[in-house]
Amino acid sequence: MKPNYLWTSSGARLRCIRSACDGNVNWIFLPGGPGLGSESLRGLTQILKMPGMIWHLDLPGDGSNTKTDSGFSHWSRALVEAVKALPNVILAAHSTGGMYALSTPALSRLLTGLVLMDTAPDASWQNRFMQFAVNHPIDGITELQKKYIKKPSNALLKQITVASAPYSFTKRGLRKGVALFKSLPFNYKACEWSAKHFDSTYRAKWVPDNMPVLIFAGAKDRIIPLDFFIASKKFQRKNIVFLRIKDAGHYPWIENPGQVAEAFNQYSRIVMARSAEKKGRR
């Protein structure tokens, strides 16, 4: 289909990836990164079959959405504007995107549902991953990081990400993962802003209690395993379902697309049943 675009006043970009005649739900997919384009989710949204329209969301400064240099500092407002632009929104957010979602309490009144993928309830994942990286170093990354610190650029950020791919993927998924990273647009300015103003101090500001929530992660995710949510007492609620994707890493649809697609199908049925129940009460 020919892509359709929606822009918010803060510079967020919504791209319609798939329209569907069945279902009135709008699925918005928010990438991780930050500074990583929603193209990183293309392999995911291509395999999904649940009813509704599918949109890719790029916040200001994400990937190729670089119309405004300083727009990323208003990411929370841009995220709310994007969700408000469409009715019956289910937000599916990956990695840092999930952290942005949980840092935006206004979403609790706007969303029909929420899917959190390979993300965390606070910043404690960073120390754990940093220690893992120290114990499992990858040749060449330290030198690339030194160059990046001296003179950051999109090209160097991409090189570091590609070199770090073994942290994100299992051995079985590594070839596809490297090809994915090489194909993506990067924006180091958004990455730098988030590192200085968000990443290390992040803590979820709200916990969904009035909508169906699916939280999943690759069972072999070395960066942000599901354990952080499992250990969080405040996320132990009847409306929240946890799922480990077998034999998969930080982008679990790369290694196990079948289980990920079925997880979305099952979650979609839960949301639809809840909506039908609400209508029946009216």
Automatic annotation (TrEMBL):
Entry superkingdom: Bacteria
InterPro entries: AB_hydrolase_1, AB_hydrolase_fold, AB_hydrolase_sf
Record's GO cellular component terms: membrane
All copies of domain AB hydrolase-1, residue ranges: 28-263
Xref: Gene3D superfamilies: alpha/beta hydrolase (3.40.50.1820)
Positions of transmembrane segments: none
One Pfam family it belongs to: Abhydrolase_6
Protein name: 2-succinyl-6-hydroxy-2, 4-cyclohexadiene-1-carboxylate synthase
Organism listed in the record: Aquicella siphonis
Gene of this entry: menH_3
